[in-house]
Design goal:
Layout lengths: L1 E10 L2 E11 L4 E5 L6 H9 L4 E10 L2 E2 L5 H6 L2 E4 L6 E5 H15 L7 H14 L4 H5 L1 E2 L5 H15 L3 E5 L7 H13 L6 E6 L12 E6 L2 E6 L2 H15 L1
Helix pairs in contact: 4-6, 6-7
The protein binds adenosine-5'-diphosphate and magnesium ion (2 copies).
One magnesium ion binds next to loops.
Length: 246
C-alpha cells in the first residue's frame, strides 16, 4: 500500500529525513515513535505534500502510484487521510459542508456517484453519534472554538465519514484526557480492516495501550533505527529513546 524508500527531505535547506524506508501493507497498523525533533511530523507533512517540505531523494509509492508526484487533493482522493497535532480551524465553513465536500470530491475522483443529502446525513449522524459529537457541533464552523478533545473527536468523525485507505495520524493523542484518548482509539480501531492501514505517529506509548500496533518503528535523527512488534513500545517506555538509539 505504502512504500517509502530511502526518503530524504529538508526544511529551509536543513536535512531532516535522512534515508527513511518503510513499507505498510493493507490491514496493518504501524506506530512511528521517536524523541522530539526526530522528524516524525516532517514525515507526516512530506506525505501530505505540504509546501516547504522538500524531498531531496528517495521515493514514496502509494497504491502503486508515485505519491510525491500527486497534488495534495489527489492524495486525499486516492484514499490518504492525514490528521495533525493541531487541526486547522475553518471559519465560515460548517462541519457538515466540509464533510460533504470532502466525501463527494473523493467519490467523484473515484468515478462514484455523489452521496444524496439523505445518504450523507445518515452516514454522518451515525458516526457522530458513535463518537460522541453532537449535531450542534456538526453545524458549527470547522474546529472554531472547539476544545482540544472536541477537535480530536471531530477529526475521528471526519476520518470515519471519509473511510480512507491509509490514515496517517500525527500526535493525535497529545494533550488528551483519558476519555478523549478512548474516543480517538475507538475511532482508529473502528477503521481497522484488511483493506485499510494506519500510520500512527506518537511520542508517547500511552495511545498504543488502546490501539495495539502490528509494528513499532523508532525514528531518530531522520532515520528508522529499530523496528519491532508492539512490545518495542513498552521497551521504549521503560528504557527511553537514548538506550535504543545508542
Ligand atoms: P518531531 O515531530 O519528531 O518532533 P519535526 O519533524 O517536527 O520532529 O522536526 C524535525 C526537525 O526539523 C527539528 O529540528 C525541527 O526544528 C525542524 N523543523 C521542522 N519544521 C520546521 C520548519 N518549518 N522550519 C524549520 N525547521 C523545522
Ligand atoms: Mg515535536
Ligand atoms: Mg512532531
Amino acid at each position: 500500500m505504502l512504500i517509502i524508500s530511502d526518503l530524504h527531505a529538508e526544511v529551509d535547506g536543513k536535512p531532516i529525513l535522512k534515508g527513511l524506508s518503510l513499507t505498510v501493507n493493507p490491514g496493518e497498523v504501524h506506530a512511528i515513535m521517536g524523541p522530539n525533533g526526530a522528524g516524525k511530523s516532517t514525515l507526516g507533512y512530506v506525505l501530505s505534500g505540504r509546501a516547504g517540505y522538500e524531498v531531496t531523494g528517495g521515493s514514496v509509492t502509494f497504491e502503486g502510484r508515485d505519491l510525491l508526484d500527486m497534488e495534495a487533493h489527489e492524495r486525499a482522493a486516492a484514499g490518504l487521510f492525514l490528521g495533525f497535532q493541531y487541526p486547522v480551524e475553518i471559519p465560515g465553513v460548517s462541519n457538515l459542508n466540509f464533510l460533504r465536500t470532502a466525501l463527494n470530491a473523493q467519490r467523484k475522483l473515484r468515478g462514484e456517484a455523489e452521496a444524496s443529502g439523505a445518504e450523507f446525513m445518515k452516514l454522518v449522524k451515525g458516526h457522530a453519534e458513535d463518537l460522541g459529537l453532537s449535531m450542534d457541533m456538526l453545524k458549527r464552523p470547522v474546529n472554531v472554538g472547539f476544545s482540544g478533545g472536541e477537535k480530536k473527536r471531530n477529526e475521528m468523525v471526519q476520518m470515519a465519514v471519509i473511510a480512507p485507505r491509509l490514515a496517517v495520524l500525527d500526535e493525535t493523542d497529545s494533550g488528551l484526557d483519558i476519555d478523549a484518548l478512548r474516543v480517538v482509539s475507538d475511532g482508529i480501531n473502528r477503521l481497522r480492516s484488511p483493506e485499510r492501514a494506519t500510520l500512527l505517529i506518537t511520542h508517547y506509548q500511552r495511545l498504543l495501550d488502546y490501539v495495539v500496533p502490528d509494528f513499532v518503528h523508532v525514528l531518530v535523527a531522520g532515520r528508522i533505527v529499530r523496528s519491532g512488534g508492539a512490545e518495542l513500545a513498552h521497551e521504549l517506555e521503560r528504557e527511553g529513546y537514548g538506550a535504543i538509539a545508542a
